[in-house]
Protein 1
Amino acid sequence: MINQKTFLYLAILAFGILAPFIFPSYKLQISIMWILVVLSLTWDVQGGQMGYNTFGNIMFFGLGMYVCSSFHIGIFFPLAEWTASGGEKTFIHTPSQFFQGFFIGLILAGIIPALVAAIIGYGILGLRGHYFAICTLGLGIAAGELAGGIELVGAGQGMTSPPWPKGIGDTELRSEFFYYICFLLMSSTFLFLRWAYSKRFGLVLNAIRDNEDKAEAMGINTMQYKIMGWVVSAFFVGIAGGLMGNMIGYIEPVETAFAGRTFGVFMVLMAILGGKGTLWGPVIGAIAFHVFKEGFWTFFLGWQYVALGALIVIVVIFFPEGIMGWLREKYPKRFGELVDEKDRKAQVELK
Amino acid sequence: MINSILEVNQVYKYFGGVKANENISMTVDKGSIVGLIGPNGSGKTTLFNSIVGTHPIEQGSIKFNDKEVSKLPVPAIAKLGLLRTFQQTRIYGKLNCIDNMRISAKSSQDNFLSVFSKIPTELNEKAEQLLNFVGLYQKRKLRAGDLSFGQQKLLELAMALMNEPKMLLLDEPSAGINPTLINGIIDRLIKVNHEFGITLLVIEHNMRVIMSLAQHIFCLAHGQLIANGKPEEIKNDQRVIDAYLGVQ
C-alpha cells in the first residue's frame, strides 16, 4: 500500500522525468521553474526558517554563474581573450572538453559561493533584523557593480558562456540535457533540506527565528548554525546560477547574474507566496509564481509588472502566511497540529 | 574542594552616566539557594546580565567554579553550566512545548558537523517528565506562544532544567503566576535545589517567596549592595526597610 506522501513524491518524479516529452515546447520554461524552486527553497532557509530576511542571496547566484563559465572556459582556453572579442568564435570546445569543463565549473560554482558565504557570514551574521536586510541588499548591489568592473570576465559588457558543442546533437538535446540537470539540482536541494530540517539544524534555525537571545542563553552557538545555513544556501544557489548562465548563454553583470531586481526579488516573493518557514511552501510558491508570471507576460504584455504587483498585494492581504500557512490554519489536522480543546483549557496544577 | 560556586568581585557596570552596578561583591555557596532583592531599577537584572555575559563589565571579576567568566560570550558561559531565565519570558513561540524542551538539551558534541546531528529520541521522555514536573504535561503539544505568561514562566524553568545546569539564575520566577500556584513553585524550586543539586540565585519581589526559599539574601539599592545576611537579618535591617519604603 502506497501512502499519500510516497505517491506525491512519485508523481513529482514522474512529472519531472516525463515533462520534456509531454510539453516539448515548454522545456526551457520548466527548467527555469526548477531553478526558481531552488532559489525560493534556499532563500527560505534564511528568510523563513531562521527569520533573517536576506536580499543578498542573489550574490551567490551571480557568483556561481561567473565561476561556472570562467572555469568552463578558463581550463582550456585563455579567458581574457575569450571575453575580449567573442572568443566563442575562435576557441571551440570539443564535446569532451565541454562536458568536463561544465561539470568542474558547476561544482566550483557551488563551492566558491559557499566559501564566500562562510567568510562574509562570519562578518555580518551578527547583524539582526533590518540591519542585516539592508546590509545584504548592499552586498548584492555591490557585487553587480564589482563584476561590471572586472575586465577578465568582460566587465559591463558581460561574457558568453561556451556554446553547445557541435556534432553531438541539436538544440533539442541541449535543452533536454540542461532540463535534467535542473531537475536533479532541484530534487537534491529539496531532499537535502528535508533531511537537514529533521535534524538539530532545523530546530535551532527555528529557535533563532523565535528568540535568538534565548537560544544563546541556553548555550547554543547560534553563529555556527547561521553560517552553516548560509553556506548551504550559497552552495545550491551558486550551482543554480552556474546552470542558468549556461542555459541563457550570455552573462551580463546586472541583468542576468546579480539580478537583484528580478531573481533577487522573485526568490523572496515566491517563498512568501508559498508560505515561508515551511518545507513545501517555497516549492508551491515558486511553481505558482512562475505560472502566474509567465501568464502575465503572455496575456498582459506591457502591464505584466502591474499584474504582478496586484498579485503581491492580494497575497499579502489575503494570505499573509502564504498558501501553506493558509492551509495550515484551515486544516490543522493534516499538519499534525490538532490540539485537544481539553488540553488547551486545562488548569496547571502543582501538587 | 571549592565551596563557593559563584564569586562576584567588585563589579562595576555603567550605562553612560548611569551607574547600574557599583562595587558589587558577592559569593554564592555550592548547593545553596540565595536571594537577590531590591527596589525596581536597583540593578538586579543588570547584575544577572553581567554574570551571564550579556554585556561586558567595566571592571571587576566574576568567577564561576573558579573560572573567570567575565570575558566569555553568552553561549560559552551557558555551556559551563551557568544558566539564567528571563524576567520577560523568552520561549520559542512558534514551536510546541516538546520542541522547546528538545532544543534546550545540551548537544553532545559541538563542532561544525554536529550542526546536522540527530536529536536523540530519548530526550522526548525526559522532556515529558520535566514538563510533568512543572505541571505542563497536558500542554505539551501546544505552541509555546499560546501559553499564558505564567505558564511560559514554568516552561522556561523546565527548559533550563532540561539543560542540566550546575547553577540557575532565576529572574522573578513567581511573577505573573497565579497565587494558588506559588506554593507549588516554592516547592518545585526547593526540589530543584535538593534533588537535582542545582545552586539557585533568585531575584524575587515577593517577600513571602524569597524569605521561605533563600538561606542567604543580598539586597541592592541604587546599584549598590546595601545589605546581606540571613532572611531574618534582612527582614529587620533598617537600610533595607529604608530602601524599600523611602527615607523621610
Protein 2
Amino acid sequence: MDSNKNFLVGIFNDEEVLLHAVENIRGKGVKIQEVYSPFPVHGLDEALGYRRSRLPIAAFLFGLTGTSLALLMQIWMLGYDWPMIIGGKNFASLPPFIPVTFELTVLLAAFGMVGTFFIVCDMKPYKWPRQFDLRSTDDKHVMAIDLAANKLDKNEISGILKESGASEVNEKNF
Amino acid sequence: MQAQSILRESLITGGKTVADVSEDISRQVEGKPTKLWWMAFGISVVVFLYGFYCVCFLLWNGVGVWGLNKTVGWAWDITNFVWWVGIGHAGTLISAILLLFRQKWRMSINRAAEAMTIFAVICAATFPFAHMGRLWLGFYWVFPLPNTWGSLWANFNSPLLWDVFAISTYFSVSLVFWYIGLIPDFAVIRDRAVRMGHKTRAAIYNALSFGWDGAARTWSRYESVALILAGLSTPLVLSVHTIVSFDFATSVVPGWHTTIFPPYFVAGAIFSGFAMVLTLLLVTRKVFKLEDYITIYHIELMNIIIIVTGSIVGIAYITEFFIAWYGQVPAESYAFINRAFGPYWWAYWAMMTCNVISPQLFWIKKIRTSIVATFVLSIIVNIGMWFERFVIIVTSIHRDYLPSSWSMFYPTMYDVGEYLFTFGLFFTAFLLFAKFFPVINMAEVKSIIKSSSEKKH
C-alpha cells in the first residue's frame, strides 16, 4: 500500500456541479485520484475516463458454466450412470432437464458475478476503506487528488478546485 | 430552471434534502426500539414459540398429526407453501422488473419488499420440509447424491425436484440482490457511528458493508452488478411460480391438469405479493414516520398493479370454468362444478369475492388513495389468495375417481400451529429487519431527490 501520501480533498455539494468540475479539472491536466459519492452519479465514470465494467462478461461466462454443468450432470446421472424408465420417457430427454438447467445457470451467473465484484473492488468484511471525508456517504461528493501524482503544486490545484465549485478544500495525509 | 411534469406527482414529499434522507432512515436503526416495536416483537415471538412446539410435535410423531387422510394427502401444508412463495414474488417484481423498466417509484419500497420476499420464502420452505416427515432423510431425496449412498439419483423428470432447485435458487439470488442493495446503506450507518463515536456499531456495520468506500469506480461496477442481477431475477421470478404450478399442472388430477396454470399462478403471486407489501408498508410508514418517502402516490401505484393482476386472476378463473365445459371431459367438468357448488362452495365463493370482486373497488380513486381502505382490502386479498390455493388443492382431490374414497379435510391444531409458526417467524424476522437494517434504500432515494422532491434546488 502507498503510505504517507498527501491528498487534496475537494468537497462538492451538488452532482451537476461535480460533473462539470471533473471535466474542468481534468481539462486543466490535473489527475484525479478518485471521487467518492453517497449515490451513483450518472455520467461520472465517463467523465473520469473509466472503462465500462466487464462484469457482464464474467456473469455470462459463469452462466455458461452453470448451463453446461447442469446439462452434463442430468444427462450423465439419468442417461448413463443409472438409466431409469420414468413415465416411458427417453433416459436423457432434454425438455424435463430445462428447468433445473435454467435455475443453475441463473444461480452460477449471479453468485459468480457478485463474487467477482467483491474481488475486483477488494471488498471484505474486515477491511476499512480509506476515507477522505466521512460525509461522502451522507450528502457530499468528495474528490481526492494525489499531490505526488500531479505536476501542479498544492495552491494551484486548490485554486482550480475552488473555481470549479468545490465548497471546501481540505488536506489529508495517510 | 427545472421543468416540472404536471402528470406525475412527487415521489418524495416534504422538501427533503440528501442529508435528511440519511437522518430520517438511519435514526430508526440508531435509536432504541419503541414500546410499540417491543409489543409487536413480543407477540410475534410468542406465536413463533407456540408454532415451534407444534412443529416439534409434528417431527416427533409424524405427519399423521395433521388432518390429512388417504384421499386428501395434500392440504394446508402445500396451500401455505404456495401462498408464502406467491407473496415473495412482489419483492422481486418491484426490485428487478421495475428496475429494468426504470420505474423510479420502486426506490422507496424495494428494500422492505425484498426483505418480505426473503422471509416469505423461508416460511414457505418450512412446509415441504415438515411434510417430509423424516426431515433428515430429505437430504437424499433432493440432492443429487450417488446411488451407493443409499438412494437412487434424484429424479430430474419430477416437477417437485424442479421446485427444489427453483425455490433455492430464487431464495439465494434474492438474498444476494437484497444484500447488494444494503451495502452502501450499511456504510452510511457506519460513518454516522464513527462520527458519533460508537466504535462497536461502526465495526459491525463496516463488516456488514464489506468495507464500502463509495468510489466512482465501485459505483460504476455496482451499477452493472445491480442491472445484471435484475436481468437475471426477472426470468427467475417468472419461472419460480411457473414451476410451482407444474407441481399441479403436470399431474393427471382433474382441476390441476390445466395449461393455464403457469401464467395464472404468476399473476396470482404478484397480486398477493403486492397485497402483503401494502399491509406491511402501511404499518411501517406509520411506525417509522416515513410518510414523506412512502407517499399516497406509491400506494396508489401499487393498488393499480393489484387491479391489473387481480383482473388477470379473475379472467383465469372464468377461463378455467369455460375450458372445463368446452373440453367436455366428464371428470374435469365435475371437478369444477364440485368446486363451486360442492361441499367446499364456501371456500370457492370466498375466493371469488376476495380476489375478483374486492380489487375492482380500486377503480375508484378515493378508495385506492385511502390508507384505511387499502389496508383492509390488502388483507382481504391475501385471505382470498389463501382460499384460492386451498380451493385448487383440496377441492380437486377430495373427490377422486372412486366415490367410495371421497372424503373431506379437517385441519387439526397442528395444521393451524404450523401456519402460525410461519407467521411468528415472518413477523419476528421482519421486525428485526426493520430495527437493525435501513428500511428504505437511502442511496437510491438520494439519487432521485433532486428530480423528484417538491423542493427545487
